């Protein structure tokens, strides 16, 4: 333990937290009193991430560190978990939020686009779960929250790669929930529907309107809608929930 560590607070790592849902989750956890490790995929984003870290720390009176690492790379993912653990002397919650899309119809999909999405969304989640799981098992406490998608629950035309990765995240989550339960570690998946972020900004206005019509609540979700759910699953109070997939989609996948 080093002197600057505040080990009285719970500590969390949120992958892909430079923007969108990940950033909102990080803020939610900081507001709940967690020290937080933010993550972006490469060194190029690190100075902006450090600014976010300073802002969140100032607003919530917690420690926030910024770490560049691609979760798709085994060595970088291991180092990310190690650095987050070292920064705070503990690791209570991990939110595997980093994710990408490379959409296209299956018959035209390139291997590269399939592989990259699996590498980041599924293998990246596995890398972080494995490294964090070891620490949490020793601690006999942990909360793992993995970002899936309703595409992984029900499939989605144009997203064979993404849906496969997110369905894989569900299988991974249910399995590790069984493996880690006896050590006080829970693992759950969150499956958002359409949430307003840079990811869904890629949709055209016409597509957004058509999707909005199909959502019983007639609106896209907000990043805060998702962050509140993740905040609960990352908290002590969710301790008897494990291996679940919770859809947060305004009723779309009912
Ligand atoms: N926006 C939605 O409607 C929606 C719906 C369902 C699921 N999701 C999932 O929620 C998560 C966040 O989505 P978002 O909409 O905020 O997306 P976003 O594109 O705004 O943010 C994704 C984040 O992941 C990071 N990232 C990408 N590759 C990475 C890597 N290799 N290593 C580390 N970080 C990496 C990005 O830098 C970014 O910070 C994703 O897993 C996404 O699949 C989003």
Automatic annotation (TrEMBL):
TM segments?
A: none
Q: Which domain of life is it from?
A: Bacteria
Entry annotation: catalytic residues = 162
- Oligomeric form and interacting partners: Homotetramer.
Give the record's family classification. Belongs to the short-chain dehydrogenases/reductases (SDR) family.
Q: What is the catalytic activity of this protein?
A: a (3R)-hydroxyacyl-[ACP] + NADP(+) = a 3-oxoacyl-[ACP] + NADPH + H(+)
From the Swiss-Prot or TrEMBL record, give the protein name.
Answer: 3-oxoacyl-[acyl-carrier-protein] reductase
Record the organism: Senegalimassilia anaerobia
Annotated function? Catalyzes the NADPH-dependent reduction of beta-ketoacyl-ACP substrates to beta-hydroxyacyl-ACP products, the first reductive step in the elongation cycle of fatty acid biosynthesis.
Any idea which GO molecular function terms this record carries? 3-oxoacyl-[acyl-carrier-protein] reductase (NADPH) activity; NAD binding
Q: According to its UniProt record, in which pathway does this protein act?
A: Lipid metabolism; fatty acid biosynthesis
One biological process term from GO is:
fatty acid biosynthetic process
């Amino acid at each position: 333990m080093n002197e600057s560590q505040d080990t009285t607070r719970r500590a969390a790592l949120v992958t892909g937290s430079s923007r969108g849902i990940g950033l909102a989750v990080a803020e939610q956890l900081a507001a709940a009193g967690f020290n937080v490790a933010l993550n972006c995929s490469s060194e190029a984003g690190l100075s902006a991430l450090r600014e976010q870290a300073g802002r969140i720390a100032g607003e919530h009176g917690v420690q926030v560190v910024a770490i560049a690492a691609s979760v798709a790379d085994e060595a970088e993912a291991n180092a990310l978990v190690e650095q987050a653990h070292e920064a705070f002397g503990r690791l209570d919650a991990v939110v595997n939020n980093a994710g990408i899309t490379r959409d296209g119809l299956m018959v035209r999909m390139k291997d590269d686009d399939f592989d990259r999405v699996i590498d980041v969304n599924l293998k990246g989640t596995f890398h972080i779960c494995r490294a964090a799981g070891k620490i949490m098992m020793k601690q006999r406490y942990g909360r793992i929250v993995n970002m899936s998608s309703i595409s992984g629950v029900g499939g989605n035309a144009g997203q064979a790669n993404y849906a496969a990765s997110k369905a894989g995240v569900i299988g991974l989550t249910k399995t590790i929930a069984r493996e880690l339960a006896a050590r006080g570690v829970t693992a759950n998946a969150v499956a958002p529907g359409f949430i307003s972020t840079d990811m869904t900004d890629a949709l055209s206005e016409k597509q957004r309107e058509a999707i909005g019509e199909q959502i019983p609540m007639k609106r896209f979700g907000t990043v805060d809608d998702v962050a509140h759910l993740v905040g609960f699953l990352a908290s002590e109070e969710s301790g008897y929930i494990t291996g679940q997939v919770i859809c947060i989609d305004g009723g779309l996948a009912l």
